[in-house]
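User: Hey, quick favor. My workstation is busy. Could you predict this chain's structure for me?
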Amino acid sequence: IGEGEIAVEDVLPEEYIQRIKEAVKKFGADNFPALKSHFGNAFDYADIRMVLNSFRKENIKTSSSSAQSQ
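Assistant: No problem, here it is.
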């Protein structure tokens, strides 16, 4: 997922992805303990990690696109 070979949407339902992304925006992508605590057992480590990797990849693409257009 982090390398772009597999899309997170192919592995997790869109509802899960959106809920985790909203929490990432609230707690930050680097605050894994807060994310895991927020969800408790609703999502396991792998679910959160997959969405985080996808989220980071999206942000890298966005940052690269912004830098190139300047």
